[in-house]
Design a protein that fits this description.
Blueprint lengths: L2 H17 L8 E6 L1 H11 L5 E6 L6 H10 L5 H9 L5 H11 L13 H13 L2 H12 L4 E4 L6 E7 L9 E5 L1 H5 L4 E8 L7 H9 L2 E4 L4 H5 L6 H9 L3 E5 L14 H11 L7 E5 L6 H10 L3 E5 L12 H14 L8
Parallel strand pairs: 1-2, 1-7, 2-3, 7-8, 8-9, 9-10
Antiparallel strand pairs: 4-5, 4-6
């Protein structure tokens, strides 16, 4: 049997197992991240719990989000929009609205490149004057299977110390500003920080982390979507003190630019340097993406975590997470690694 057929069989088993689950009592899950990585996690998690909160980075400064941020001084709405789209159901209503808010205008004018959902979110922010209330209203309109919150109520600028950002000076370390620039740097990112240095966390996001049964961090762009959550002091304090168990979900492959050449264990080492007091319980990785399991286990142990390897990649070989396989992996972790909440 080929590896492709084997993964297809696993996908079928995962789908059958999830469809047969009883959802009367479910874990409270908070997922942190941004961009497509968080979307992948949310698409999986909404299949196994109805008590789901996404906490989203607000440092994006590129594309439609960057233009709206610069023109109106608002939080960048793009990653929030993607999270809302990921929480839309698989029925006709959910998929229709997911496509509508993701739709981008194509023109020769000022609307070119703007996403419908970005404009809707910003319009409600201006109408209601409340980030959380507006996002809750958009979620209600979409029939979203969960809640979406920004990690901070102020737009942040991501800055990184990068060695070799200028190919002509490979040993020079410089400060690179802006999430879009950091994500595409040809150099080696040493560390990241945000401006302002001590941004206020959204209180509802802090409360969600403290009240959770499970917290999921990642997958996603490591320096620009995952680690920024650890740079908001109140949110980091909540992650350190919460009684929730914590899963660190690794990427399927290094990201060109900011994590080029990173091994799975190096991702853990970088996270540990940015938040040395933060312990994890489980590190989830695709079994085919870990060439050195012993080194990954050692790095995970330094974070206080056990490693769970599972087939979570798309069976067609594209380096993206398969929603059903990822859902099955999360479900197994929630069942096997401690039963904090009353859902079991």
């Amino acid at each position: 049997m080929t590896s492709r057929h084997l993964r297809q069989r696993r996908l079928s088993r995962a789908t059958a197992a999830l469809s047969g689950r009883k959802r009367a009592a479910q874990p409270k899950v908070v997922a942190l991240g941004g961009g497509m990585g968080l979307s992948a996690s949310l698409t999986a998690l909404r299949r196994i719990t109805g008590d789901l909160t996404a906490v989203v980075t607000v440092a994006d400064d590129g594309g439609s989000s960057g233009r709206l941020r610069e023109e109106l001084g608002v939080l960048p709405p793009g990653d929030l929009r993607k999270a809302l789209a990921a929480l839309c159901g698989d029925d006709e209503w959910g998929q229709t609205w997911a496509q509508v808010i993701q739709h981008r205008f194509e023109s020769k004018g000022d609307l070119h490149g703007h996403a419908v959902g970005n404009l809707l979110i910003v319009a409600l922010w201006e109408q209601l004057g409340d980030h959380v209330q507006a996002l809750d209203l958009v979620g209600k309109l979409l029939g979203a299977h969960g809640r979406v919150l920004p990690m901070s109520a102020v737009p942040l600028e991501l800055q990184a110390l990068v060695r070799g950002h200028d190919p002509e000076s490979p040993e020079e370390t410089v400060t690179v500003r802006g999430q879009a620039t950091v994500a595409l740097t040809p150099g080696e990112v040493q560390s990241v920080h945000v401006v302002p240095a001590d941004p206020p966390a959204v209180p509802e996001a802090v409360a969600a982390v403290l009240d959770a049964d499970w917290v999921v961090l990642g997958p996603g762009s490591w320096f620009s979507s995952v680690i920024p959550h650890l740079l908001v002091p109140e949110l980091l304090d909540a992650l350190v003190t919460t009684k929730a168990r914590k899963v660190l979900s690794l990427n399927l492959a290094p990201q060109p630019g900011e994590t080029e050449g990173f091994s799975p264990q190096r991702h853990l080492e970088v996270l540990g340097r940015h938040a040395p007091k933060l312990a994890m319980d489980v590190v989830l990785a695709d079994e085919a993406a870990v060439p050195d399991r012993e080194s990954l286990a050692d790095a995970a142990q330094r974070l206080g975590a056990a490693v769970e390897l599972a087939p979570v990649a798309s069976p067609d070989g594209v380096p993206i997470h398969d929603p059903e396989l990822l859902a099955a992996a999360y479900d197994r972790i929630f069942r096997m690694h401690g039963r904090i909440g009353p859902w079991r």
